[in-house]
Design brief:
CATH architecture of one domain: 3-Layer(aba) Sandwich
CATH class of one domain: Alpha Beta
Strand content: 15-25%
Structural class: alpha+beta
EC number: 5.6.2.1
Number of helices: 23
Radius of gyration: 32 Å
InterPro entries: Topo_IA, Topo_IA_2, Topo_IA_AS, Topo_IA_cen, Topo_IA_cen_sub1, Topo_IA_cen_sub2, Topo_IA_cen_sub3, Topo_IA_core_domain
Protein name: DNA topoisomerase
Enzyme class: isomerase
Largest sheet: 10 strands, antiparallel
Distance between the termini: 31 Å
Pfam family, one: Toprim
CATH topology of one domain: Rossmann fold
Number of strands: 32
């Protein structure tokens, strides 16, 4: 029997996440009930569901999994029993679309159903939203629909081209994406620049002067070793004359408020948390009422928050520490000043047709704490949540404080051959925003000491050191740098940056890894007591940590798409398409026109590709060996005389494809060699070599830090065991099946799959059963698992 819903005088508030419901009900009081949609309820999963001839009208289907089906049934009952319904989904395009879907699914009037938005889960924000409802903005809904259809057009029409011309992998097919491909291109272009710029050898010269041996840097960096030696010889009896500038007051500006991309960059650089994880943690902090909404490109705060922050700064520090221009950070004021300065007014007919506009207090803010007085999170919170919150709190407070001022001096010492040594130092005058972290030297003895030395005083050197360095080198990108470049190039929007960074890694195009430098012999030089010493040493150049490294398959995919679909994926076209989506959201462009333009572009490029007679990607090495992309990545396809059929050999990781195309490699330089007479490197699985070995107790494999017996193969000859055979075993019997969240994973045990739950605060993990979960645990969307676990066990 279906559950009956008693008729009550209730206003139903529908949000996306169940984590918000309890607090919202507390803030609204009796008469209100808050339920969650758990995100989207319907999907558009095929081109067949788009009526292209009818202005790209989409035909949505209910998401087919037990959780969503149950949720739809529950919502139907709740809506039918409520007196009024208020849609409170997130204030972004996806949230607006979810609100519209709810209206469309449950026969709610789009033009009359109340829609509220809030950007922090506090009583004041919720109450204010209830007092200022609006209706669904169909312009924003159409922008979301257009984005979804564009992504489907690119993904479903271009990705199969990659399968035909490069490789098809049933488990993790190659794919092209409207924003994913330009993101990959950024990594590819940077790698190209790295390859073309090996760097320039230069000597950094440091002269140690004064009784305190203060290190002065030589203004010139010598590239020629003989010229450097000439300089040192001339320095031996050169009269070094000291001078110093008068103290000059310098100001250091406070940081800007956090936008989504700036927070992701700071979190990656300072806390070493990936953009994807940063957004997950932010979601928890937002739902807990600790921070404002985390998807924003605003750099402003609400007037109410500014007023409270002023009081906090005055009480904690002093009124002098309040930013003199703090009111410029108030939401909307900047835009209003810019408009008034241009003195440009629009007539009524010039204005685009838009839906009800949000009230001024509903405007997006920068990411900030909801309560500036809360410096640290409660002890019950996770360590990474505390660290990220502290980063947001500090940045917010600093952005509202006055500039820091310092007195700076630059000491100069003349050097031989018309060079000079420089040393700049400073002392704090007014710490301003820097007082928050207190990262400044309040005394700085060197500053005072240098001012006591007489001007034009001859000052002998203690020692002069010349160290060989590599300059003008290009570095691989960090995740933070890639986010910055995505924003600068208009690829995607704040809500998608973390997903794009994650997606190109998930596809195997890019890997976050360390770069091992090249070890070279170097000759450093030192002048001491008028004698020159040559110091021979070895030094590694080019070491990098946690950088995004393009993989061979990523290079091949990027080059293929750039060659054949350049007009679809170039930076400018991608940026223009994002701008068009913004125009749709503002009512300035008809949504289905850009879908038609994009489809026409794709079809034209596909037809051109067919006409060129492009062949499947392969690089011929010799008559019997071809480099190609196999099911599990790059391989050498072999057809040797005397051996029946085709077989494959693994490829080394660090192959330069340009050199390979130019024929600069020997076969033995490409193939991953066996580590011993009995070891065979079969290939790579999830970034680790899979090595087949014959040991004391029979055949086994090593994979990363794991060893696994192969008794299941019985007496099968070692040469008849393929990489595909091993991967099937690893995937079937691997202990870790799915990573659901930082605290939750699905693991394989003696009696089947189970839920493993452990937070950093827990000494021992907890285990839960998967009874009742009907989807394929390995293949279903991870959010489906996450939602089921959260609903059934109330853990996350």
């Amino acid at each position: 029997m279906p559950k009956k819903y008693a008729k009550t005088t209730t206003t139903l508030v529908i949000v996306e996440s169940p984590a918000k419901c309890k607090k919202i009900e507390e803030y609204l009081g009796p008469g209100y009930k808050c339920v969650a949609s758990f995100g989207h309820l319907r999907e558009l999963n095929s081109l067949k569901n788009i009526d292209i001839a009818n202005n790209f009208q989409p035909k949505y289907t209910d998401i087919d999994n037990p959780i969503k089906i149950k949720r739809i049934t529950q919502l139907k009952g709740e809506i039918s029993s409520a007196d009024d319904v208020i849609l409170a989904t997130d204030d972004d395009r996806e949230g607006e679309a979810i609100a519209w879907h709810i209206c469309d699914m449950f026969n709610l009037n789009v033009e009359r159903t109340k829609r509220i938005v809030f950007h922090e889960i506090t009583e004041a924000a919720i109450q204010n939203a209830i007092k200022n409802p609006r209706t669904i903005n169909m312009n924003i809904v159409h922008a979301q629909q257009a984005r979804q259809i564009l992504d489907l057009l690119v993904g479903f029409k271009v990705s199969p081209i990659l399968w035909n011309y490069i490789a098809k992998n049933a488990d993790n097919s190659l794919s092209a994406g409207r924003c994913q491909t330009p993101a990959l291109r950024l990594i590819y272009d940077n790698q190209k620049e790295i390859n073309e710029n090996p760097g320039v050898k230069k000597y950094n010269t440091t002269g140690y002067f004064t009784n305190q041996c203060i290190p002065f840097e030589l203004s010139k960096k010598y590239e020629n070793e003989n010229e450097l030696i000439d300089f040192l010889e001339a320095s031996a009896d050169f009269k070094h004359i000291y001078s110093c500038t008068n103290p000059a007051k310098v100001f250091k500006s406070q940081p800007e408020p956090f936008t989504t991309s700036k927070l992701q960059q700071a979190s990656s650089n300072d806390l070493h948390i990936s953009p994807k994880e940063t957004m997950k943690i932010c979601q928890t902090l937002y739902e807990g009422g600790y921070i404002t909404y985390m998807r924003t490109d605003s750099k402003t705060y609400s007037k109410d928050f500014i007023d409270k922050t002023k009081k906090y700064i005055e009480t904690t520090y002093d009124a002098n520490y309040i930013n003199k221009e703090i009111d410029y950070l108030t939401t909307g004021e900047k835009d209003e000043r810019e408009v008034s300065s241009k003195k440009k007014k629009k007539t009524e007919k010039d204005k685009p047709v838009t839906q009800d506009k949000p009230a001024p207090q509903e405007a997006h803010e920068a990411i900030r704490p909801t309560n500036i007085s809360l410096k640290d999170l409660p002890e019950k919170m996770e360590s990474r949540e505390k660290r990220l919150y502290k980063l947001i709190w500090e940045n917010t407070l600093e952005s509202c404080m006055e500039k820091a001022s310092f007195y700076s001096i630059t000491a100069n010492i003349t050097a031989s051959l018309d060079n000079k040594y420089l040393y700049t130092t400073e002392i704090v005058d007014f710490p301003g925003w820097k007082i928050v972290k207190k990262k400044y030297d309040s005394e700085n003895k060197e500053y005072h000491y240098l001012l006591t030395i007489k001007q034009n005083y001859e000052i002998p050197y203690k020692k002069i050191q010349c160290k060989l360095t590599l300059s003008n080198t290009k570095m691989h990108y960090t995740e933070a740098k890639l986010v910055q470049l995505l924003e600068e190039n208009g690829i995607g929007r704040p809500s998608t940056f973390s997903m794009l960074v994650d997606k190109i890694q998930e596809r195997g195009y890019v890997k976050k890894d360390d770069v091992k430098g090249v070890r070279k012999r170097c000759s450093d030089y030192e002048l001491e007591n008028n004698e020159i010493f040559e110091i021979e040493t070895e030094r590694e150049f080019g070491n990098e940590k946690n950088k995004l490294i393009i993989q061979q398959v990523g290079t091949i995919v990027s080059e293929f798409l750039d060659k054949n679909f350049q007009n679809l994926f170039n930076y400018e076209y991608t940026k223009e398409m994002e701008n068009d989506l913004d125009k749709i959201a503002k009512g300035e462009k008809i949504w289905h026109t850009i879908c038609a333009e994009c489809l026409s572009q794709i079809d034209n490029l596909i037809n051109l590709l067919k006409e060129t007679g492009e062949k499947k990607h392969e690089i011929k090495i010799d008559e019997h060996h071809v480099y190609t992309i196999g099911k599990f990545g790059p391989v050498i396809k072999c057809s040797e005389e005397g051996i029946e059929g085709i077989f494959f050999k693994p490829v080394k990781k660090d192959i330069d494809l340009e050199k390979l195309k130019a024929g600069e490699y020997k076969l033995e330089d490409i193939i991953a060699e066996n580590k011993s007479s009995t070891d065979r490197i079969l290939g790579q699985h999830e970034g680790e070599d899979v090595i087949l070995k014959d040991g004391k107790f029979g055949l086994y494999i090593t994979w990363g830090k794991n060893n696994k017996s192969l008794k299941c193969f019985g007496n099968r000859p070692i040469e008849n065991i393929s990489f595909e055979d091993i991967v099937k075993i690893l995937e079937k019997e691997g202990n870790l099946l799915r990573e659901v969240s930082p605290n939750i994973s699905i693991r394989n045990g003696k009696f089947g799959a189970y839920i493993f739950y452990k937070t950093t605060k827990m000494k021992k993990p907890q285990f839960y059963q998967l009874n009742g979960f009907t989807n394929d645990i390995k293949l279903c969307d991870v959010n489906t698992i996450k939602e089921w676990i959260e609903e059934k066990y109330k853990i996350r």
